[in-house]
Every structure is written in structure tokens, then in C-alpha cells.
Amino acid sequence: MQRGMDDLDAIRQVVNQVLEAHAEEEGGQRSQARAEILIHSMHVFAQRGLGRTTVQHLLDAAQVSRRTFYKYFRNKMDVLESIYRIFIDNMLLHFHQEMRQSRSAKEIIRNTTKVYFDYHVSMGPVIKLMMEEARASSSALAPHRVRAQRIAAEELTAEISRLTGRDLDPLVMRTMLWILENYSLYIFEDGEFSAQRLEQCERAMVGIFEAVLLGGNATAALLERQDEE
Question: Model-level pTM?
């Protein structure tokens, strides 16, 4: 029970931080009712999936009236899109911070990979639902996925160039991000988080990233099969 409360507190902190930033940019104020709908909807979507979730389920979870709900959202997809945008904006912020603080290409690779996986794990199973939905070209989430990958790829390319002098095609970084995305889905493949898969994916991702970007300076052992305990 304590873990569930801790997870909820962590999600609430992320949602409130991003909404406060958005409100400041727009010159308005953050709505606590809107925030609570978003926070509690994550658990509902994770448990029921998008197809089996109704607006009533979201109302019950957040303990708000239908009138309050429609003041902020058009439908359940609008809620999911808002959650995904919060996830994207916060993820890009963490990426930017790690890249700026890194002193070498190897640090960028290791730190951003760790941040990526840690953040996905902290969001829980709902991240799998959002990522799968965002990959559908007809989804309202798809443009946000494309935007985030473009921004992340451009920043990674610029920072790697700054530290190594290599002028890489941005498609190289997009490819790395696509691998990360697939690894995140693999970690939650059965609907449950797997620590073993996380460790395996993080190790392989750093190995692949270093091999592509650093060549002979990469840590070759990261790509070798590990003995199973």
C-alpha cells in the first residue's frame, strides 16, 4: 500500500510541476481540479486500458463532477493526450538537464539512457499504453511523439558534436530513440514491470549507443552475453 501511495505522490509532483510551468508560460493559474483528474486517470488507464475506460471511471477516480470534468476536457482521449504531453515535456526537460551537465559523450550516453528508463519506470504501466497509442499515426498523441523525438534528436546531435566534433546525421539519434522506445515497451511487455529486463535493456542500449558514437572507445563488454544467475 505504501508503494502505491509513494507512486501517486511522485506522479502528483511531476504533474503539478509541469502544469505550473505551463500556467506560468500562459500567464494563468494551475487548476488543482484539472491536476487531480490527470493524476488519478493514469491509474485508471493503466488498469483498464483505453478501450475499457469511460469518462465515468475517470470521474469516480478523481471524485469530481461531470461538469468539472468537461470544464477542462472534451473526452477521455483529451485526458490521455494531456497526460502524454506532461510526460513528454518533463522527459525533454530531464534530457536537456543531463546533456548540459555531461562532460563527455560517454556521460551523455549513460546519463540520458538512465534518465530515460528511470522516468519510464516511475510512470508505471500507463506509459506502455501511451507509447503504443502514440505510435498509431491517426492518434492525437502521434504529433507529440514526433515533436519530442525531433527535439531530443536535435539536442543529442548538437551535444555529441560539441563534445566529439562529429557532425552526425540527426537520423542516427532518431534511430537510437526508436530503440529506446522499443526497449521501454519490452520492459512492460506482459503488463508488469520487469527489473531483469530493465537491467538487460539499459546495458544493451548503452553498449549500442557507445558502439555507434564512440567506435573503438566503446565499452565492448556491454554487448556480450551475460551469465545468468
Answer: 0.86
